[in-house]
What does this fold into?
Amino acid sequence: MTTFDINADLGEGGGADQALLAIVSSASIACGGHAGDDQTMRTALRLARAHGVAVGAHPGFADRENFGRRRLLLPPDELDEQVRGQVRRLVEIAEEEGVAVRFLKLHGALANMAAEEPVVSALCFAAVTGLVPDLAVLAIDCSAQVEVAQAMGFRVVREAYADRAYLPDGLLVPRSEPGAVLHDPGLIVDRVLRLAQAGEIVAVDGSIVRSSARSICVHGDNHAAMEIARAVRTALEANGIIVAAPY
It folds into this structure.
């Protein structure tokens, strides 16, 4: 039986966390960099535990003013400190709450830079080495993140985005460009089903990107997040696809 993961980025102040956790199968929790604090982490962890949702750490640039979506050029030691410090804090709180942190997913501009630049991926993944046994990496498919994480010995789960437009090379259209973020649940459902069933994503120029992604992200800060997540889960299950976390 085919399985597919629906993940959401939570603990970011989007307001729909509790409702989304009743739909998704895994959750990437902001851990104090681009968003979140000890209390939001604890709340998200408790809700995830109550709903049986797998938990991951979601570190990003410590740039709250820009929600971690501005590209920063940090010295390697500073980037290491930011990523490791954020993930370590989530792991500490998760241990107090009896929740296992099962994966790492980079956020925003940091994720996009790591998708393009192997050295950034390597720095980020090295920063979390040894923090959690058997930590997996949820990585943007068709990107440097996948190659680097595999080379460093991490188990990789390949990810695609339900509500983002794609470039022909398999990377995301920058948010600064028109049409980069999708909001139409019907259009998004069609895209997700095509990905899950045929391994294809249609890029903005009409070309086809081949993808092995088995996890689909719905951004928690998308104003249509709830409607999108519900529609995606309903469509997958209606087509005989089991929604389940791969961790």
Remarks:
- The domain at 3-243 is CATH 3.20.20.370 (TIM Barrel).
- The beta strands are 3-10, 26-30, 54-58, 101-104, 136-140, 155-161, 200-202, 208-210, 215-219, 242-243.
- The longest strand covers residues 3-10.
